[in-house]
Records
---
Amino acid sequence: MIRDCRKRLGISQEELGWRAGLHRTYITDIERGVRNISLKSVESLSKALQVSTWALFAST
């Protein structure tokens, strides 16, 4: 879902990381599903992706 939202916005992983205040490699790991993500990071990503926090959970 995060990758889909990022691509819909037309931004890179680096840009998403900058907008969310997270490192690009962390974004990569999240998109690959190899990293457990904190609620604080979910909130940061939802703001950066311009979607509700609930939308990130509802898609799984």
---
Amino acid sequence: MAVFQGFSDKIQAIVGKLRGQGRVTEADIKQVSTELKRALIYADVNLSVAKDFVARVSEKALGEDVLKSLTPGQQVIKVVYEELTELLGSKQTKPRLSSNPPTVYLMSGLQGAGKTTATAKLANYMRKQGHNPLMVACDVYRPAAIQQLQVLGRQLDAKVFTIEGEQNPVKIATEAVKYATSYLHDIVIIDTAGRLQIDEDMMQEMEDIKAAVNPDQIFLVIDSMIGQAAVNVAKTFDQRISIDGVILSKLDGDTRGGAALSVKAVIGKPILFASVGEKLNDLEPFYPDRMADRILGMGDVKSLIDKAQEAFDEEQSRELAKRMLSNKFTLDDFLEQMQQLKKMGSMEEIMGMIPGVNAKALQGASLDENRMVRMEAIIQSMTTSERRNPDLLNASRRKRIAAGSGTTVQDVNRLVNDFENMKKMIKQVGNMAKGKKKFRGMF
């Protein structure tokens, strides 16, 4: 499911009426403003935030430079895009790093917001940036909270600090920072306890940990799906412990967007990261302009490129391109490409980032993730010689491969046909490239 799908559909329907219009009247702007307000209220955006947003859009859209431009419809869409970007935070904010390591991040939030998982995802993100993070288990109240963080730590092969039998979170946090200094962990991420609701004991404990370790930044983890209720949570935490930024969890399940669209405007603190899936890799830096692009159906090419650069090895891709153009593309190469493509996320998510692709239409499309799993199983059931030379795949071999991969002969046939079609397409591209080079050589 695309991020903010419900809200995005409504906004796209509104701006879609303006796209290509040669003339826009004040009545048109008034109608757009009314529909925008309804869409924001539907999205569970804070009411004062919704009113201010619509007022700013109306004021700018009614300016002479918009109404008298050659493309007024496009100009109004541009105004909506700019105001959406501003509402979401204007520009990306990166976490700060201390000039005197370790950098200490304190995670806060209500129980169930996804703090522990966010701690592990942030550790994973920091490790990819070349850091050596230490996760600290300070939730001594929730059953199995420490074990949960330890399991996540093993998945990441990252150190989790805890003190067996210790029930004082302040002491655990303090000792963890000392440990990090001694064992060269340049990042410390402290997972704290949450409550089902904000209470005095919870806030006092956060204040005590803050006073003891003097964190470089305090992050508030907010469940995106609670809508504008997130604003009250953020206000309280900010008043008591002065948060530095927000991490939105469960953004992939949020069809409205009330939390993301409200929190920056109300408390003035940026959204640093958004969790867009259940895997530990599914934590993305939050780019307000890219999110506005997605909401308005303009795709998100920059994030798509980032994902591709992270998933695909540059040297491997260069070598593969050479093999493709020299007609040496094998089923092993085909398998490698599929595996790297999977690292980028679901097909629906990838397609939703491409401009002009209707994310809503994708819901009914046959983006069969299981088919990719079957294709992998089929190729892995082949011998080395069969992968390198599919011409060997007679009827008996295909039957054996189908049995070994738990698929059908029809599945094997389909895979071979897909592979052969790709080879033909690659050959055509190669011939075009050679023809172009030959043509240039004539001059």
---
Amino acid sequence: MSSSAKIPHYSCHLHGKPAESADGARIEVVNPSTGLVFATVPACTAVQAAEALEGAKRAQPAWQALPAIERANYLLRIAEGIKTKREHFARLLVLEQGKPLAEAFGEVDDTIRYITYSAEAARRITGEILPADQPNEQLFIYRVPHGVTVGLCAFNYPLALIGRKIGPALVTGNTMVLKPHDLTPVTACEFARVIEAAGLPAGVLNVITGRAAEVGGPLVQSELTRLITVTGSIRAGQAIYAAAAKNMVVLSLELGGKAPFIVLEDADIDRAVEAAVVARYANCGQVCICNEGVLVHEKVAAEFTDKLLHRVKQIKVGDPMKDIGMGPSTSKIGLERVFDILAKTVAEGATLACGGQRPDGAEFAGGNWMQPTVLTNVKPSMTAMREEIFGPVLPITTIGSYEEALSIANAREDGLSAYLWTRDHRRIMHAIQNLETGTIFVNKGICGYIQGYHNGHKRSGLAGEDGTHGIEAYLQKRTVYMSWE
């Protein structure tokens, strides 16, 4: 980090050392709480993106040749380096992403867990020995790395997504070029200082900052890239899918969704209300598995809605560094889109039950602020129930049956996650078999365990992350038929 005109500048990381843009250009990073520039990072070029891939290709054979446990030791040093700078990273997350400080500390801790879990997998990378059909022969199936991988991160979890991607990629013998989101590149640049201190061999992990059009395209389209892991929107995933098709690149796409929060007539209403609020307004609603719309049974709709509104009105909005309830949205453009969805839905006949405005007060004059908002009398055809909101607006729709809720949920072209609140085990088992989503939370609020698996169905993605299946995604199989005659 350097300082010019009192605005700190953060370098990226290429070929084992800090790097700047080849032409000196920089990207301004805005604090979403104030709307003011608080840092700059290099605006790297397409040529530098190609050089980062070349460096990763050169480093990969030697990295793969290391015993997996030695690769894991580097990861453990990286995890320890993050731990020693825990508060520093948490405060950077608040500054560039806007989540409250407590949530930022949680993200730092999750990053450490992701990397540590991957390191622990070093002794669990297995192959297979199968019987051959002929005498004096042996059949093996090895698992080997893909080679050069590219990691593209979303803005909602700038640090945790790094740990989620680099851990399994590196422990399995791949190298990676990591590109953070344009809105939130600072924590990635500071993460680069940790990998430098850990002594990671040059080229094994390059961190490149720059505009998506300038840097992302060359990374995705290069013949050197063998696997791309993306966390982002469905639209971004579709564009990457098309761009990478020519080279038949392996894709791991964790894309958007619109999780229905289904509350049936026999649900524990108090628990469901609390879970619905946390799953909507955590990180200002900017979580891919957030509660994107309540489908509540008509017999309990009034009770549920009254209790939910009471709880939402208790959420305080304010300076996230002071750890007040809910902070700002990260993106100005994203928040404008949320307000647009809100306006369209009200125009379509929905009722604005609470919120819907920028908070009052001088501290909210700049930045990307919105009150926690609830819409009632929302029909499934209305905008807020059709489009992914990714912000602090919760639409509530009344349903007449479980079957109606299932029909509404499965009619969507995406399928990342869903919530189901009921005591009826027959409905639970039916939903497990028939809800077309990658994750189902049954009588459970929003969460994610590293030993689980995070993936989407339909347009919500390909492959997935976390757990043994997530690590497996970074390995390809090699079959060997051997005769020893």
